[in-house]
Amino acid sequence: MTATHHAAILPQKGGPLSVELRDTPEPGPNEVLIEVKAVAVNIVDCYQRDISMPPVLIYPAVLGSDAAGIVVKVGSKVTTAPAPGSRVLAFASSFSQNGSPDHGAFQKFVLVQAEAVIALPDALSFEEGAVFPMGVLTALTAWATVGVPLDTKYTPEDKQAVLIWGGASSVGSFAVQSAKSLGFTVYVTASPHHHELLKRLGADAVFDYKDENVVSQIVAAVKRDGVNLHTAHAVVFGALQPTLDVLKETKGDAVAKVAHSPPLPADHPTLDNTEITFNFLPLEPAARTKNLYHPNIQVESGGLHGLNEALDKLKAGVSGTKIVVPI
């Protein structure tokens, strides 16, 4: 008799999610089957549920990507992933697997490519671990998107700066930390009550994105500091136009490069001599969690049945906080 498990199913475009039974799959040769203990929700989950953006390729669908849990089985060719019984975090995305609902995080048992699974440190709970996969992946992949290798080590003499628009999000906080480790002078936007934290994480200057003079303030700081600013990461929706407004004044003759983490509309704003690229995620987690600042988490109850409400709360707006749902 085939084993089954509960999953939050998206039956059609526009949702809502409904909890139903699915057959529990067996892992393929390079896959790991994980019993999910907690998931984190991301704004992309809201957009996939509500408007199929990025495109939902198969209905009924299982959404989600950020999961923490316990390894149940591993495939026949898996040699590097943690063994059965291990606590792990995983980037479990059906989108990265051509829409396969077996691979979406919002269910009790999920298949994950072995290279997208890493051990969860003992010091972190499942709820704490679930916040890392997409946030860290997005922050790090952005550097590849703009042509900056992760082993880059700029010195103050290089005078290289970066603008991160949306620093208080989980992606933004990881982006700030990684930018500092790469040697950039780091300019960040966020609400004022996050400024001190972001400075502790590595920001050289933080600006209130709601200030009507924020663009001129950033430009003035760049000119005062004597650095070259032609690289940016637009972390949140609405960031692209003000980011381009800054780069127009700071990039000089250089080709400016912008990594754009939200889905990039076809009619997005542009700037001459500027490359704007959607930050498409790979499979590999590609980072350790031990030395990263951990965002605040907001734990929501209800398990799989509570995911619709968790997504609605996220869509309504949270600041400096990651919503996590124990499963």
TrEMBL record:
It comes from the Eukaryota. GO terms for molecular function: oxidoreductase activity, acting on NAD(P)H. This is Zinc binding dehydrogenase. Coiled coil: none annotated. Gene3D superfamilies: Medium-chain alcohol dehydrogenases, catalytic domain, NAD(P)-binding Rossmann-like Domain. Pfam families: ADH_N (PF08240), ADH_zinc_N (PF00107). Residues 14-325 form the Enoyl reductase (ER) domain. CDD domains: enoyl_reductase_like (cd08249).
